[in-house]
Amino acid sequence: MAELLIDPKAVAPEISPNDEMYLGGESWYFPVGQSAIDCLDCALKAARKPISSVHRILDLPCGHGRVLRYLRAAFPQAEITACDLLRDGVDFCAKTFGAIPVYSQDEPSRIPIPPESFDLIWVGSLLTHLDQDRWRGFLTAFRSFLRPGGVLVFTSHGHGAYQRMLAGPDYFAITEQQKLLILDRYARQGFGYVQYPPLEGYYGLSLAKPTWVIDCIREFEDLKVALLSEKGWADFHDIYACVRDDSWHIQSPVVPRRLVFAARYRKQIASIRRRVRLRTRLRAAYHAIKAQCR
Ligand SMILES: C[S@@+](CC[C@H](N)C(=O)[O-])C[C@H]1O[C@@H](n2cnc3c(N)ncnc32)[C@H](O)[C@@H]1O
After folding, report:
1. CA distance 53 to 67
2. 195 to each of 60, 128, 207, how far by Cα in Å?
3. Is 42 within 8 Å of 230 (Cβ atoms)?
4. Residues 40/75, Cβ–Cβ less than 8 Å
5. Residue 210, class by beta-carbon neighbours within 10 Å (0-12 exposed, 13-18 middle, 19+ buried)?
6. CA of 256 to the centre of ligand 1 (A)
7. What's the CA gap between 206 and 38, in Å, rounded?
8. What is the pTM of this model?
9. pLDDT, tens only, 191-215
10. DSSP H helices in 64-131
11. If we measure between CA atoms, which residue out of 79, 80, 2 comes closest to residue 44?
């Protein structure tokens, strides 16, 4: 399959003065964008989706285009939609990279995007900040935005983030107590979430084990997991890629009632059969002895 190659000169260098993702400087900012393209390349290959079949792309949340500028360079012919709550970011992506602007909503079910709109959806660092009910809400929305055969690629904080949190200083902008709580929940339940201070709204920090995430994806019967790469994005976030495959449903065959009954009462039936066999043998022995005595 073809490689997703980028001409570095085709990557727009303009940075919005309001881009919070740029606070770490360009030595982090641009490699993170490039790394997203490397992940998408692996994801499309794993999903066996040719690059030439990607015509419409959604970047949600687009922020101020840290990744979108690379999407533009990697898919020059594609129509790219930029969606975020940050209207300033959406406007910047529309003006600077020619993206179609969509202002998002807190509630994923209210995001104004029609079903079956996209061949590829990139979700960089959104679920990393949400609690479990919103994970489900967003996955439901993303699944509905995908065309059949479309690919959803999202990131999560997994074991890499867990280890970084265990080892490091208060890098994640949460309190020491919150840090202990989230680490404990992650270790014991596979998923942890704490709300960023000042503890209102729905935005915080989540840690999710791959087993928990895969179970979450499994709730959508037509999402086929194509790729899981721990620390795949910029050596930090885990990457998941799923394909919408309408034939992936679990289709139970029609099982004859006799078989269901037999499976349910297997032990009892076996015990009855043993007793019947024993009684038959005893009766045969009795008749044999009786015949000898005559
Ligand atoms: C950590 S930033 C990541 C931005 C971008 N993906 C990047 O990698 O530079 C998280 C983004 O999620 C956005 N966000 C939070 N809730 C959202 C929602 N309901 N719909 C769309 N975007 C949302 C925030 O506005 C913020 O821009």
Report:
1. 20
2. 21, 12, 12
3. no
4. no
5. middle
6. 51
7. 24
8. 0.88
9. 999 998 776 778 999 999 999 999 9
10. 68-74, 87-97
11. 2
